[in-house]
Amino acid sequence: MDCPPLLPPLLAGVAAVGCAAPLARAQARPAAPLPNIVFVLADDLGYGDLGCYGQKLIATPNLDRLATQGMRFTQFYAGSPVCAPSRNVLLTGQHTGHTLIRGNAKISLRPQDVTVAEVLREAGYTTGAFGKWGVGEEHSTGTPNKKGFDSFFGYVDQTMAHNYYPSFLVRNETRVPLPNVVPHEGPYGQGVATQKVVYSDDPIETEMLAFVDRNRDHPFFLYFPSTLPHANDEAKDQGMEIPSLGRYADRDWPAPEKAKAAMITRLDDDVGRLLAKLDQLGLTDNTIFIFSSDNGPHAEGGVDPAFFHSSGPLRGIKRDVYEGGIRVPLIVRWPGHVAAGGVSDHIAYFGDFMATAAAIAGVKPPDGLDSTSFLPTLLGRPAAQAPDPYLYWEFYEGRSSQAVRLGDWKGVRIPMLTGEIELYDLRTDIGEQHDVAAAHPDVVARIRQIMDEAHVPSPLWKVRAP
User: Fold this and answer.
1) Which CATH number fits the domain 16-389, given the four candidates 3.40.720.10, 3.40.50.10420, 3.30.830.10, 2.40.50.100?
2) Where are the domains of the chain?
3) How, if at all, do strands 371-372 and 391-395 pair?
4) What global pTM score does this model have?
5) How does pLDDT run across 41-60, given as a tens digit for each residue?
6) Which of 430, 401, 350, 339 is nearest to 68 (CA)?
7) Nearest CA to 206 among 273, 256, 296, 116?
8) Residue 343 has what DSSP assignment?
9) Which top CATH class is 398-454?
10) Which of 14, 44, 230, 273 has CA 20 to 30 A from 224's CA?
11) Sign of the four-CA dihedral 436, 437, 442, 444
12) How many Å apart are CA 117 and CA 92, to the nearest integer?
């Protein structure tokens, strides 16, 4: 059941936040209505997949319009180059040297892992999540309803979310049957339907819009982690599942590319319907609307990420800690607060959402996090903006890897802990083509120190031998 709202003060000046303490109110300020917070998260959408980021072939009119109405970030980063750890970073405000989930695996958040939804619910928000969860298994300690969300509908298990025609979705803690037939459906994939009746995006969107209707008179946090345009990996080269190719049906493109384009445009349509709902209910001006992606573009389901230049000018794709795997779109609209048509080169990442959301709500987040509020940047107050000391990633697939963003410097180490550090100057080499480590041993030494300090060993994740 949705919780009754409270109305704490707005916009406490939380900047950097530093192990989890009880949630606390900020100092009292004159009461003001809490803004609704909407966070739409695409799944495997690349930096170059939207028109407002340079895409020429795929139509994304609603997101492009959103960018003209708000602020577009050019140096914003996901929490990881793959889904589950990236979402862990977004929800908990910790980087992957500290998070519980550091790769795609069947691991569930624990009771002590405090999420942004728990922080916002304490501040008086009604909270809802609709789509792909991916950081907890059914009946575990890490389900959405146990991690701060009053309402949930969608996929709990991220592997099940590969299949767009599942035999069930989950509402809160209960499975809701769907009429699709999936002969070998199971917790580890094999999710390819033989009878495709209900496309999962449809009921998920319906439940999401109903949540907005239901809470029109109360401050709400809506988290919409869409499955689009992720591939159904189990369907191999036919994994870009979409009911209709729409405007792309007659294009002279490979079939998977037509389907990928249709999936991205469908995501854009979903955003358009959500924006229209906010307009219809008169909520637009009091809603901060955020759009991003969980990592870079994939090479699954038969698609070639180079076909649409999905990484834009960046090197790498999903599973790379080079820029193409982790630099993602970020668009933020908040009428009357965020200047329309703004473009920001502020360097930030998923983990910063915790401190930013807490600042919007006027509460103090847990201590001991890797989170710096970028609210001053949103409000056009650059002099008040505290920078992140650095950004850090570690990744365990393949040979394993680490990366650090330190100002304009980017360090990459493959394999983790033992490899040689590559160094790139992103001011002049956004494509990471020129390793300048030999010319800057002092910078390399500082990045090595950060990598060693930021990595806290985990009993769940072991670095493979090179």
Assistant:
1) 3.40.720.10
2) 16-389, 398-454
3) unpaired
4) 0.93
5) 999 999 999 999 999 999 99
6) 339
7) 273
8) E
9) alpha beta
10) 14
11) positive
12) 9
